[in-house]
Amino acid sequence: LSKRELEVIEYVARGYSNKEIAEAMFLSVHTILTHRKNLMSKLGLKNTAGLVVYAVQNGIHTELDYISN
């Protein structure tokens, strides 16, 4: 996964909306949707819950604390 995709999955795991993620990352909502689509495809997932489970199982969600500070 790319660095940007990892950032997106971290925000998703924290419950951020696409708009909130876009604002936090200074990107367009369309770009966030593209990252999410690519994540789902690469990971073979079908929904957002799958992204959250993946993040938790792989410890990705904890890295957001560093990005936010």
Blueprint (SSEs and pairs):
Layout: H1 3-13, H2 18-25, H3 29-43, H4 48-57, H5 64-68
Helix pairs in contact: 1-3, 1-4, 2-3
How many helical stretches? 5
Protein structure class: mainly alpha
Radius of gyration: 11 Å
| Number of E strands | 0
Which blocks of ≥5 consecutive residues have pLDDT under 50? none
Along the chain, the helix and strand elements come as: HHHHH
Distance between the termini: 23 Å
Quote the beta fraction.
under 5%
Largest sheet: none
Task: Give the oligomeric state.
Answer: single chain
- How helix-rich are the residues, as a percent range? over 70%
The shape, in one word, is globular
Q: Provide mean pLDDT, rounded.
A: 88
Verbal overview:
There is one protein chain. The chain has 69 residues and is an all-alpha fold. The chain has helices at 3-13, 18-25, 29-43, 48-57, 64-68. The chain has five helices and no strands. The model has no long low-confidence stretch (mean pLDDT 88).
Sum up the structure in keywords.
69 residues, mainly alpha, 5 helices
Brief description of this entry?
This protein has 69 residues and is mainly α. It has helices at 3-13, 18-25, 29-43, 48-57, 64-68.
